[in-house]
Write a structure and sequence with these properties.
Rossmann fold, nine-stranded mixed beta sheet, 8 helices, 36% helix, 251 residues, alpha/beta
Length: 251
């Protein structure tokens, strides 16, 4: 298992204050009732969507325990590995990058304890793209709202996606509903998300994110909403008002 936990070099896409904020949460990432409780709750839904999207895109079988075997996967803004580990467990050769070295250290330690071979690096998308690395699957989940220079970020993401590859992104929508649920509800009232984790003005609408991806040379394939109901909990559907996923490939 390779890991690089030295501070990430400066890059246009990295907002230093954001990296510092989330780095301070590193030791609590894997606590299912802690500061990342919301992420723990949506990880199974994320995993299922990524598996199904990859199976359909690459013509794989969903009936095996490791449907992503033979594919390389990059988890951008991986935190302590909540999504990187499912990618590895589904068979992908997984890499996770994050701007906060504290998160990478926590991710590497948790993977080692679980016997998972995952490469973790404290670096930027720009620096990784400059190495010529390419990945079949790229996940970028709840990250773009924390990015500084988005043009630089999306250009590097596109460069990292291998020909024929699949990119899967998720982010909150910028709507009254997302403010009510994520800022007022989850941050201020229930504290399921750390206070100050989000700036609602930095949220991107689906058309805005789609345009950024197109400008980077990618084509959006599908959009899915992430919703919640008292009866079924979190689920994928057509309502993108609070949070949504986009899948994309090279144009």
């Amino acid at each position: 298992m390779a890991s690089t936990t030295a501070p990430a070099p400066p890059a246009p896409s990295i907002a230093a204050n954001e990296a510092e904020f989330f780095g301070k949460l590193a030791e609590d990432w894997w606590n299912p009732t802690g500061s990342s409780a919301m992420l723990h709750r949506i990880t199974p839904v994320r995993s299922a969507l990524i598996r199904d999207a990859a199976v359909a895109h690459f013509g794989l079988s969903a009936k095996t325990r490791r449907p992503l075997a033979g594919l390389t996967a990059l988890d951008i803004g991986c935190g302590a590995g909540l999504m990187t580990e499912p990618l590895a467990r589904m068979g992908a050769t997984a890499t996770g990058i994050d701007a906060a070295p504290e998160n990478i250290a926590a991710a590497a330690a948790h993977a080692t304890a679980g016997g998972l071979d995952i490469a973790y690096h404290a670096t930027s998308v720009e620096a990784l793209a400059a190495t010529g690395a390419r990945f079949d699957i790229i996940t970028c989940l709840e990250v773009v709202e924390h990015v500084a220079d988005r043009d630089s970020f999306f250009a590097a993401l596109a460069a990292l996606l291998a020909p024929g590859g699949l990119a899967i992104l998720s982010t909150p929508n910028r709507t009254a509903a997302s403010w009510a649920v994520l800022i007022a509800g989850a941050e201020m009232i229930t504290r399921q998300i750390p206070r100050g984790a989000h700036d609602w003005n930095r949220f991107m609408t689906p058309p805005e994110l789609s345009e950024s991806l197109v400008n980077a040379g990618l084509a959006v394939m599908a959009t899915h909403g992430l919703g919640w109901s008292p009866a079924k909990g979190f689920q994928i559907g057509g309502d993108t008002g609070i949070n949504y996923f986009l899948t994309a490939r090279h144009a």
